[in-house]
């Protein structure tokens, strides 16, 4: 279950993906499979090769891309790796907003 973002933020993330950009969306999230994680960052791009290359520099495997038939395929970043990658990408606003 996702919460902590509004429709405008989701629409902006999708627009960036549609333009072929690497786009980041962090939100609160509850999933019983990951009881120690309360946030997730979705990193998406329409160009799956570009997304895979982006992920490769952080040790993310191409097969970890959540491929969506309707579009908006993405990596899910969780836990310590989430914060590390957000820091390297200069996305302090995500870290501060969600108290990572």
List the topology elements:
Layout: E1 2-3, H1 7-18, E2 23-29, E3 39-44, H2 48-56, E4 74-77, H3 79-88, H4 92-97
Antiparallel strand pairs: 1-2, 2-3, 3-4
Helical fraction equals 25-40%
Strands in their spatial order, largest beta sheet: 1-2-3-4
Uncertain residue segments: none
User: How would you describe the shape?
Assistant: globular
Biggest sheet descriptor? 4 strands, antiparallel
State which percent range the strand residues make up.
15-25%
Helix/strand-derived class? alpha+beta
Q: Note the total helix count.
A: 4
| Tally of domains | 1
pLDDT averaged residue by residue: 94
In angstroms, what separates the terminal alpha carbons? Answer: 18 Å
Number of strands: 4
Question: Over all CA atoms, what is the radius of gyration?
Answer: 13 Å
Order of helices and strands: EHEEHEHH
């Amino acid at each position: 279950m996702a919460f902590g973002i509004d429709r405008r933020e989701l629409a902006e993330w999708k627009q960036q993906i549609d333009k072929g950009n690497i786009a980041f969306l962090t939100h609160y999230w509850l999933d019983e499979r990951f009881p120690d994680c309360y946030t997730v960052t979705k990193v998406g791009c329409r160009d799956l090769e570009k997304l895979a290359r982006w992920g490769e520099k952080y040790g993310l495997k191409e097969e970890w891309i959540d491929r969506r038939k309707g579009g908006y395929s993405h990596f899910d970043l969780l836990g310590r790796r989430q914060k590390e990658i957000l820091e390297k990408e200069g996305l302090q606003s995500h870290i501060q907003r969600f108290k990572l």
